[in-house]
Amino acid sequence: MYQVLYRKWRPQHFGDVAGQPQVTETLRNALKSERINHAYLFTGSRGTGKTTCAKILAKAVNCLNLKDGDPCGECENCRGIDDGSILDVVEMDAASNRGIGDIREVIDEAQILPARAKYRVYIIDEVHMLTTEAFNALLKTLEEPPEHVVFILATTEVHKLPATILSRCQRFDFHRISPDAIRARLSYVAEQEGATITDDAARLIAAVADGAMRDALSLMDRCLGSTRNIATDDVRLAAGLAKKDYLFELANACINKNTAKALELIAKLHSESKDMARLCDELIDHFRSLMMIKTTRHPRDLIVMSDDEFEDAQTQSDYLTLGEIVYMMDTLQNAYKRMGKGNSNKTELEMALVRLSSPELEGTNEALTARLSALEKAVKSGVTVVTQTVETEKPKQEEKPKPVVEEPPKAVEPPKAEPVKEQPKAVEPPKPESKPQQKAAEARPLPSALNMDELYANAKPFRQWPEVVENIMKYSKAIGSAFSNTNAYESGQYLLIDADSEIAFSLLRQSSQRENIRKAILEITGRTYKLGPYKKPEKKEEKNDPLASLISDLKERGVEVNEE
What we know:
It contains 29 helices and 11 strands. By secondary structure, it is of the alpha/beta class.
């Protein structure tokens, strides 16, 4: 009979257990020093190795030839436990043997000495399913067990265990296995099975398994049923997942507010028998990846994607604010909760995507926050809002033809106003003088030397400079790093940069780089500054007058002095 992979490749030594060094190393050291506890509690999520470690520990405490804390696997006790001929190791499921009568049988058997092994070991899986009476019956035996008995309790819901049980066991917490550890184990198993698996496919299996090695091996087993060379598409087909291309297209439809495109994609995926609830969950995970890119310093370590997909995700995140991403995740999460309770899952997902691609339909606080975030971004860039206001004002002018008809008579007045243009003879003389000064000021990085001290003296710290430097990083990491340890001061229409390195000042002299810096400042502040270097004003030394100091000294002593 064919044996499934998770059973065939169940680890036989602590060293083969993936992703649980905090458990395996502690148990190995305890076994080497012969510090065997009478009761162990293994807790953690499904598929993380609790039962596997319990079986290895049961063999290790009975092994006749222990090797560095691991069972040898060759002695008669190890072989007897593996083939089931030794009955001193008992594994029971508390979900089906949860009553007080079942526990009393265990307590009675525990009084009997082991027949062949050193210890009688009881592995009780899903121990949280025991009844209150069963826990009370087991309590006394756990507190004072016979010397030849070892209890190993395993559970996924440790919070359901009584405190009296927890206090009598040595507890080991099993963590979710990291994607890298799962990927390495899958590659090893595939090689032993004479098959191949790509790194991207192994990473995708690890993401679907969510830290459970058993689930990962089961999914790879399904893939091996159709091909011996497992690729990403094979994993998606076996798991019923949509391709990443569809996820990016759906996200783009929401970003571009293209409702028709979003609904067409949903119809296409539904016709391909894609599970709508799973697709909704994948979309939530996709926007979570965008959120991690927006908020964390090293998102690559936290996101399971190929390199090309990660670059596309970075580009996509640039078009969204953090508020918009959170709003999209919240809308999809609400749709996911409603699935299976009323309308079809497809309808719920369609309604969610219509809301995301048509924000005017949603009036919640989250939607308004997302729209305000987009509006702030548009105002800082100075492009989008102007276009939208022009488009909305035109219909209002067309709807009121009467004011337009009444204005022509007033338009006759400009000829009367033309004589006013003769006034420049008396008014315009000072203007030509000011315009060249303005043009010269714009051409120079700083004003004339006569006003330098006044400019520096009025300079105030520019609080938004760290945010500007972070924004510069989007245009060029090299430029951003050059300004990373600098300060800036604001003085009127000038932004003065204080830097110890000459690299920053050399960049300011280049017109192209200076334009990028101005653009980054404009997006953060909404203002356009002139750039220049900052120099701390020198303190003028006050010259002391010897005669004045002598007169003041005499006055302090009470001596009358005629200053004439």
